[in-house]
Give the backbone structure.
Amino acid sequence: MLDVASGTGASAVFLAESFGWEVVGTDYSAELVGQARRRAREAGLGHLVRFELGDSESSPFPDGAFEAPICQCYFCTFPDKHTAAREFARVLRS
């Protein structure tokens, strides 16, 4: 699962905790990535959740890397929604 604009990691940690899913969260803010990493570590979920710096319009991941993306609350703030949506589709598995 890819969590785009993961913020402090609440959604990613919830998904890992509730369903045992592996989640990669990305955020544009180094400060938020740090907070998210702490949240996952404190929840004991470092084996399921990781967070990286990332730009929603230029994903560092290869084509087909994820089964599903989520983007809770932030899509409306992206400057180029078309490019971000294209990136979501690109990293999805068929």
Remarks:
- The CA atoms of residues 69 and 94 lie 13 Å apart.
- The longest helix spans residues 30-42.
